[in-house]
Backbone:
């Protein structure tokens, strides 16, 4: 079970986008996530008239390591660490600061 999941609201802890908030769009492998609006790079695209692709420069979302993002605790509005606990016989994610269950 992963501590950071798809559709979680996260904050960036380090790098050029430090402090930005976004929503996790997808996982890339076990250790990387793609966050909407974070770690955007410019990508040059070659034109291909055979397939109708126009050339130019477009934006591309790049993955960011899971250690550089933290889940946002809605109660406090700050970044928080995540742990696991058995709640009513099921494994659930909890915030380390206050012990509340993470709402999905």
Residues:
């Amino acid at each position: 079970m992963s501590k950071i999941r798809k559709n979680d609201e996260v904050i960036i802890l380090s790098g050029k986008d430090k402090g930005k908030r976004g929503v996790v769009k997808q996982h890339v492998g076990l250790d990387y996530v793609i966050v909407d609006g974070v770690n955007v790079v410019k990508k040059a695209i070659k034109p291909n008239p055979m397939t109708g692709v126009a050339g130019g420069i477009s934006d591309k979302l790049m993955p960011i390591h899971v250690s550089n993002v933290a889940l946002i605790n809605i109660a406090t509005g700050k970044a928080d660490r995540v742990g696991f606990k058995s709640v009513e016989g099921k494994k659930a994610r909890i915030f380390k600061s206050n012990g509340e269950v993470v709402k999905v």
Remarks:
- The chain has no helices and ten strands.
- The domain at 9-75 is CATH 2.30.30.30 (SH3 type barrels.).
- The mean pLDDT is 93.
